[in-house]
Specification:
alpha/beta, six-stranded mixed beta sheet, three-stranded mixed beta sheet, 9 strands, globular
């Protein structure tokens, strides 16, 4: 008896920083894997998540925003995003609902001209504009690339997400499932925990600090009775003045970050979390190959 034929393949989500790449991926998967923030450079690594249903399996690759790099971390992030495009079955290019095509979008158009994969133009945040405005955006973008599909969505509200998934399956090849049906990500729990702490720091701190922080998990210990996990984590920043701001008066800011992160981590691991946070200064870590690798930004991990 023949096995039922299913489709499976890889889909990358690209776009400028802050267009909603992580939000749309989380919405499609149905749970939070990638961290979100209104600050640029939130996603630094290629985050792989898995969507499985009776039609098959879609492996989503959420990439860092494509931007003009200012340091080795920036270069690493752009390389990850651009290299991922070469090895997938479908590319989702996320844009905002505006008729202005800026330098960031033009840079992406130039990269897409060399890609021989189906490209979807996904116009996100359509809940923020009038219906007629969406047609103007489509008109503005439609000749920039040879798009396989153009889909307006609202990642935050979930509008048109089911249609997007249906269209992705249309372009995927038939093939075996790469992961078990209950797998939602290939990210180690420790890495997701570090990213959740960084997300809360991004949301609590001033604009000038977050780009210069990383999070290192020093210890993650599950107690024998299975009710509590002890986590020791360090927030790394680039300046002594930043350390003071991250800790806050009487440790108030660090406590605020820890409390917000603990709530998310408890939802992730489904048990109580005893989280201890420290802050260390590592000057110019974003330009240090050794420290970048140490904090999980490793060239060999590129897809």
């Amino acid at each position: 008896m023949n096995e039922p034929q299913v489709k499976s393949g890889f889909v990358t989500i690209i776009g400028r920083p802050n267009v909603g790449k992580s939000t749309i991926m989380n919405k499609m998967i149905g749970q939070k894997i990638a961290i979100t923030s209104n600050k640029p450079q939130t996603t630094r690594n290629r985050i792989q998540t898995v969507y499985t249903d009776e039609r098959g399996q879609i492996i989503f690759l959420d990439t860092p925003g494509i931007h003009k790099a200012k340091n080795k971390l920036g270069t690493y992030m752009v390389d990850v995003a651009e290299n991922t495009m070469k090895n997938v079955d479908v590319i989702l290019w996320l844009v905002e609902p505006t008729t202005f095509i800026g330098a960031g979008e033009r840079h992406i158009v130039e990269r897409l001209k060399h890609v021989k994969k189906p490209i979807f133009l996904v116009i996100n945040k359509v809940d923020t504009v009038q219906r007629d405005d969406i047609f103007k955006v489509i008109d503005t973008y439609k000749n920039q690339c040879d798009f396989a599909e153009i889909i307006p969505v609202s990642a935050i509200k979930g509008n048109n997400i089911d249609t997007l998934i249906e269209l992705i399956y249309k372009y995927l090849p038939y093939g075996p499932q790469y992961y078990d049906e209950d797998t939602v990500t290939d990210q180690p729990v420790k890495q997701i925990v570090a990213e959740l702490i960084r997300e809360k720091a991004l949301k609590c701190l001033d604009d000038e600090i977050p780009h210069g922080i990383a999070v290192s998990i020093e210890r993650m210990h599950y107690r024998e009775d299975g009710t509590i996990v002890d986590i020791d984590a360090t927030i790394i920043c680039e300046r002594d003045s930043h350390k003071g701001i991250i800790i806050g008066k009487g440790g108030a800011m660090l406590k605020k970050i820890g409390s917000a992160a603990r709530y998310e981590i408890e939802r992730l691991v489904d048990m109580k979390v005893n989280l201890k946070l420290w802050v260390k200064v590592k000057k110019e870590w974003r330009d240090s190959d050794f420290l970048l690798k140490n904090f999980g930004y490793d060239k060999k991990d590129e897809y």
